[in-house]
Amino acid sequence: MNLVSIIIPSFNQASYLGEALQSVLAQTYQQFEAIVVDDGSTDNTPEIARSFTDARIRYVRQKNLGLSAARNTGLQHAQGNFLAYLDSDDQFLPRKLEILVAEMTAHPELGLVAGQSIPIDEMGNKIGSIFATPLRADPSQLLLGNPLHVGSVLVRRDWQIKAGFFDESLRSYEDWDMWLRLLRLGCPMGWVDNPVSLYRFHRQQMTRIGSQMTAATFAVLDKTYSDPTLPEDWRRLRKVAYSCAHLRAMAQCFHAYDFAQAQHHLCEAVRLDPLLSSDEGHHLASKLASLANSPKNPDPPAFLELIYSNLPSEFNALRNQRKSALANFSVEIGFDAHAQGDRVLARSAMLRAIRHQPTWLANRGVTSVLLRTLIA
After folding, report:
1. What whole-number distance in Å separates Cα of residue 138 and Cα of residue 46?
2. Which of 101, 103, 177, 349 allows an S-S link to 333, with CB 3.0 to 4.6 Å?
3. Which pLDDT value is given to residue 375?
């Protein structure tokens, strides 16, 4: 059988590390080794890691050098012909290795295969929508953003050797940089339409690490576009790629309530990709709704309302559709929240929709959800 090396970097995540390791031991595919790389933790990470006596789990400690360096240390110790990555606060679903190894075995030409990921909160509760965006046939589309959760990926060792180590100068998005490098080398990638991992969101950290993520976003693009051998089809996407990065930066700034910088990034996004301002702003409105509907946001309708309430003055077309956009989005979120059993979010979303457009009171579906959540 194919040995899978699972690399688990950990820095002060002792409260989650046990669950991560339990999810590894619970795999239906048991031919693995797990390498826990303690990146200089000051909590009881060593005790948690050493409490697991299964010989397949190894513990390595190093001084604090960052996530990329910890993954690279794991790579240096890995012996498997397949590589998987698991952040210490995330988890594998039981069939993760079974599903992805089977896909690799059935398609030996693939160098990387990925599956879906389910977002969870600090307590392990499912939140938001499943990460189910497949890899596109055109590799250059990965320049527009990273749809892959690192815990949902399996990499063939030979391709990882070709790509080399993770870039230790990056403090975030080092995985996106790695996938782009693999694609540039010609690595064929596959997609499995099944959830294989749980991706934990620490919502209270979003403001603190937002500037770090923004800097890393542009650093990855700057690095990619500095390559003189970059194919022409990748170069043609430069403006759109940077436009998408500015939209993500805008969202990070709104998390930090830095409205001036948020407006700057929004204006830059539209300048680089004029298509965003076409069709009376409907295309941009769709992008904003997508950014708001993220597991990072505990109340997506409130976050979208924050954006619309602080649009630059020149976005009149978008301002004119504010009420309908916020109402429609709130209704969509309300139905999704109700289906997932989140009565609090379902109720608040429906009430927002009615506040923005009272005509939604005549909709039986909306009133039914609202009454059920109020009674409950």
Report:
1. 43
2. 349
3. 87
**Distance between CA atoms of 33 and 43, rounded to whole angstroms?**
24
- Secondary structure letter of residue 116 according to DSSP: E
| CATH code for position 107 | 3.90.550.10
Domain of residue 14, residue span? 4-201
Query: What tokens were used for 181?
Result: 């490098």
Sort 188 into a burial class: Cβ within 10 Å, 0-12 / 13-18 / 19+. middle
- d(C-alpha 212, C-alpha 230), whole Å: 26
Q: Counting every residue, how long is the chain?
A: 376
Q: Name every residue whose Cβ is closer than 8 Å to that of residue 295 and which is 6 or more positions away in sequence.
A: 119, 121, 127, 128, 129, 199, 201
Identify whether residues 347 and 279 lie together within a single domain.
yes
What is the spatial distance between Cα 198 and Cα 182, in angstroms, rounded to a whole number?
24
Measured N-to-C along each axis, helices 282-292 and 238-255 cross at an angle, to the nearest 10 degrees, of 50
Q: Are 107 and 192 in contact (CB under 8 A)?
A: no
Q: Which residue has the tokens 């996530």?
A: 67
Contacts of 276 (CB under 8 A, 6+ apart): 243, 269, 270, 283, 284, 287
Single out the residue in 137, 171, 201 at which a domain terminates.
201
If asked whether residues 22 and 120 sit together in one domain, one would say yes
Q: For residues 303 and 206, is the Cβ–Cβ distance under 8 A?
A: no
User: Model's pTM, two decimal places?
Assistant: 0.94
**Running along the chain, 376 residues long, what does each successive block of 10 average in pLDDT?**
95 97 98 98 97 97 97 98 97 98 97 97 90 91 95 98 97 96 97 97 67 94 97 97 98 95 97 91 94 91 96 90 95 93 92 96 95 88
